[in-house]
Amino acid sequence: MKEMFTRRRIMFGAGGAVLLAGGAYEGRRLLRKRYAPSPYDDLLAQLDDRDADAQIGEAVLADIDDFDAKTVSESVRARLAHQSLAQAAVADATEDRLLEANGWVIPETLGLLCALAAKAE
Question: What is the pLDDT of residues 2-20, one digit of tens each?
Fold first, then answer.
């Protein structure tokens, strides 16, 4: 009777599983929408849906007359240097740093990050 599990079959099966898992992971990354490079990519990578967030950013920008992207990006980088975006949003709400965007009240760090997304388009 022929052996069902040979070392060769196990190695090929394990190798195939690794290739399949790696392909699924890389395929998802490769199919993700790509954006033109911007000086804010390190910050914008924290947004889940950059297109939707850019729309929020347009609403934020409508209420800010003197928006300086360089100054804003430095401020946001400093806020996010030692905390996550979620932690910064909670701190903003606690310290009453809020922005209005089209009737929505949002944490300042998130609003400024969305405005950077709008400027990067």
Answer: 566 566 665 555 555 555 5
